[in-house]
Structures are given as C-alpha cells and as structure tokens.
Amino acid sequence: MKLTKITMITSMIILTSLIGGCQDKANESSKDAQDLIRPAKLIKIGQAQTSHFLNYPAVIEVSQSSQLAFQVSGKVDTLAVRDSDEVKQGDVLAQLDKRDYQSKLNVAKAQFENSQAEYERAKQLMDTKVISKSELARKKTDFEVTQSQLVSAQKALDDTTLRAPFTGNVANVLIEPQETIQAGQTVVTLLSLAKLEAKINIPSNIILRAPKEESQAPQAYIVLDAAPNLKIDATFKELNLEADLNSQTYEVVFGFDAINDLNILPGMSATLWLEPPTQAKKTSNIAVPLTAIGSNGEATFVWVVDEKTMEISKRNVVIKPGVGENLEVISGLTQGETIVAAGIGSLIQGAKVRAWVKD
User: Fold this and answer.
1) Cα 193 to Cα 171: distance, rounded to the nearest angstrom
2) Are strands 352-355 and 37-40 parallel, antiparallel or unpaired?
3) Could you tell me which residues come within 8 angstroms of residue 238 by beta carbon, excluding any fewer than 6 positions away?
C-alpha cells in the first residue's frame, strides 16, 4: 500500500515536470518567434502600387536643342569649345576673323556721321530758306540710309561671335579653326540636358480613357535600361493628336528632370511605367493588395507595421466587395500607414519585420 502511494507521488512529480517543461519550451518558442526579424514585402498606404501599372518602351530625348550657325561668312579665328563641353548662356562658342567687318563698320560710321552733319546743316538752311524742301528731303534720306547701314555693319560685326543661347552641353562641333564657312552653315549642336523627355506610343483604348484635366494626369515614372533599380518621376507633357497609320498608336511625351549623378543622354532606351487612367481617378481611395488581406472567419484584417519599432499588429478592416489584385478599404486604415503586403500566413502579433529587398 505504501509502495503504491510512493509510486503515484513520483509519477505526479514527473508529469508536473514534463508539463512545466513543455510550457517553458512553448513560451520560449513564442518569444523566439517574436524576436526573429522577418523579411516582408511592405507598402505604404497612399503610395501608388506599381503592380497594376502599364509599361511602354521609351526613347530619351532632350527638351531643348539647337543647331547653331553664324549669320555671316568668314574664316574661323577661335574655336572655344569641344564635344561634350558644358556651357552657360552667353558663353562664347566660336569667333570669326572680324577684321573685314570692323573695317566696314568704320566706313559706315564715317558715312553716317557725315550725312548726319549735312542733314543738320540743311535743316538750319531751310529755316532761312536758303535751300529747297526737296534738297532737305534728299539730305534726310541720305542720313536715314547711312544710319541703317551703320546698324547693319554693327550687327555683322557682332555676328562674328557665336554665343550659347541657353545653358547646356555641346553635342557636336562641326568646324575646325581657320576653316572658311558660309553664313547659315551649322557649326555647333547644343543640347539642354537639365530637362529631358521620354517619348512613348500608347494605343487608342488607353488614350480614350485618359483624363482631359491636366490635374488628373496619371502617375508615371521612368526606368532606364542602364539603371533598372532607379525610378525617376515623370509628368505628362504633350500628346500628338494624329495616330500612327501603321500601329494605330499615339505619341505621348513625358518630361523629367536630370539626375545629378547620372549622365542621361538622348537616344538611351528606357521603360515608362504609367498608372492606368481608370486608377488615376481614384487617388482619394485606399486600396491594398489582395495578398495583404487576411480573414479568421469572423473579421477581415491586415498587419500594420509600426515604423519606429518595426513591430506588427493585426488590425480589423472593412473591405468593399470587389474583384481584382487590389481591393478598396472602407475603414480601418489611413493614408501614410505601412502594412505587410504579402506572406501574412505565418505572422504573429508583436513580431518584428524588415523591408524585403529583391536580390
């Protein structure tokens, strides 16, 4: 009898120890799960989700370019730039030999001063009726002709200096020093690389739904083939209203600013990502990916990330009935909050996450 009691007490002690050990292990497992920092795909509410964006091949072009030429003929005396040089507005690019034009200006100035003096004397003589009105008219005509010749001679001299009409980069220099050139002959091609453009061709079904108000223009960004991890914000600039007869597409131009650390040049290939027009009209609504939404049978929820601690918490939300990759949230979320966008099945309350970055 005593042996039976001792056996029972011993069994209870062992069982209690096993249960306590299991509970400790469970608590430790739960704590480990909370301490583990999991990589997760995160999205910020209010930022456009690019999974539904349309994309089109694009070619980079400059918004401003000019083929520069002298307005007078002559021999190149000074060439101040080379290909790819950066210049400021007003900088001297090249100069012609100006000696002949300076001589012509000196002659024109002398003729002007002589005709001016004769005209002034004629007006004085007219007051005393020494000369006729016709003679005074002839002197006035001579004065006006020489005045015009002086202005032309001065302009011709000024035109022997070619200056940059805007700040930009020299794309191509087409002349050499001491070369004789003709007026109107292109000598330098100048590009402005501060403002760039991306040209794409869009089918008619997209153009048909595009908003007419510029304020409702869809969001867009550019990804260069040479820099696939960089997104450059772009804005709608212009639309060619005549369709290409072969492809039945319309040329659309988007503008964007140059990036200081990159040499983005005309002719580079890129992809322009464009928010569908029907989505652009709904910018005030909150929509989340279907993969971010969970359900426990009683409520629908998402996992919200505290950006300071990177801890997640489950929050119930009300979803508007619908179909598609993104669903509208009626209540439960506000603009600017960050949620987990995918892989929510293994998440637990209080766990920490970090933004997943694709290798």
Assistant:
1) 10
2) parallel
3) 252, 253
In three-state form (DSSP H/G/I as H, E/B as E, the rest C), the secondary structure along the chain is: CHHHHHHHHHHHHHHHHHHHHHHHHHHHHHHHHHHCEEEECEEECCCCCHHHCEEEEEEEEEEEEEEEECCCCEEEEEECCCCCCEECCCCEEEEECCHHHHHHHHHHHHHHHHHHHHHHHHHHHHHCCCCCHHHHHHHHHHHHHHHHHHHHHHHHHHCCEEECCCCEEEEEECCCCCCEECCCCEEEEEEEEEEEEEEEEEEHHHHHHCCCCHHHCCCEEEEECCEEEEEEEEEEEEECCCCCCCCCEEEEEEEEECCCCCCCCCCCEEEEEECCHHHHCCCCCCEEEHHHCEECCCCEEEEEECCCCCEEEEEECEECCCCCCEEEEEECCCCCCEEECCCCCCCCCCCEEEECCCC
| Mean of all residue pLDDT scores within the chain | 85
Residues of the chain above pLDDT 70, percent: 83
Token representation of residue 145: 């002709």
Task: Work out the number of other CB atoms within 10 angstroms of the CB of residue 353.
Answer: 22
Q: Which domains does the chain have, with CATH numbers?
A: 34-49+284-355 (2.40.420.20), 52-63+191-280 (2.40.30.170), 98-159 (1.10.287.470)
Tokens at residue 10, please?
């011993």
pTM here is 0.59
Question: How many Å apart are CA 295 and CA 238, to the nearest integer?
Answer: 45
The dihedral formed by the CA atoms of 271, 277, 282 and 286, expressed in degrees to the nearest 10: -30
AA identity, residue 187: V
Stronger pLDDT, 71 or 346, i.e. the higher one: 71
* The pair of three-digit structure tokens given for residue 355, joined into one six-digit string: 């933004």
Largest CA-CA distance found in the chain, in angstroms, rounded? 163
The residue among 205 and 120 whose pLDDT is bigger is: 120
